[in-house]
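Q: I'm writing up a methods section and want to include an example of the input and output format. Could you take the sequence below and give the corresponding predicted structure tokens, formatted cleanly so I can copy it straight into the document?
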Amino acid sequence: MARRLVERLGPIRLEPRRIFDWWSGVGGGEAVLRAAYPRAEIVAVEPDPAAAAIRAARTARPWWSLSKAAPSPLSASAADAEVGRSQLVWANMVLQFVADPPALFARWHRLLEVDGLVVFSCLGPASLRELRELYTAARWPSPASEFVDMHDLGDMMVHAGFAEPVLDQETLTLRWKSAEALLAELRLLGGNAAPDRFAGLRTPAWRQRLLAALAERAASDGSIGLSMEVAYGHGFKAAPRLRAGEPVAVALEDMRAMVRRPRPTS
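A: Here is the clean output for your methods example:
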């Protein structure tokens, strides 16, 4: 998804000096960002210190390695990212894990300079359609949270102050060789946060019922597919609108940016 997301930045004339890679460990976009913007300072933002430590351990270069590695991004927690401004906030496949998306859009808006860009991708409401149908037929609670529709995401962006939001979506079908492989990979996406999910742990017998139900949906080649709707969006931080007779407070950094920076075009 990271590569698909960075392709959408191609037509946009933007040369960010600093990039906030939001929840970098989840999004996995460091390599494509480094290739697209080799001169930019990349700040890897993680939701908490534990996630930052996991990411640091995973990306650390062995002391004995003689290969020349790309410069490691700076690190910050989601709590201290306000130490500076950036020209690009990048959030690949993280919004579906956020409890309050409108608040996060507002935060991204604060972190950007005027004419800065936010670009993101996330799962849409048509994701896991086959699994939801299976659970409904079995009269089980929901297997996953309800994901936000891209039109609602656009409304959230406008409310947060972003201009010219552009959103689109595509539906991908992922296939696995077995029900066990399918469930193992779904666990990597995180737990089920749906309010009406099962209240406790399931039994081995219930798991076998689930595996059997998934196997019944296998294609002629034995593979099992699940739909994934992926929404993509981007929007600019517009300059504050100055209205006659109304006092307007503008941050000094934003005022400087309004004076010196040309408007990005797409």
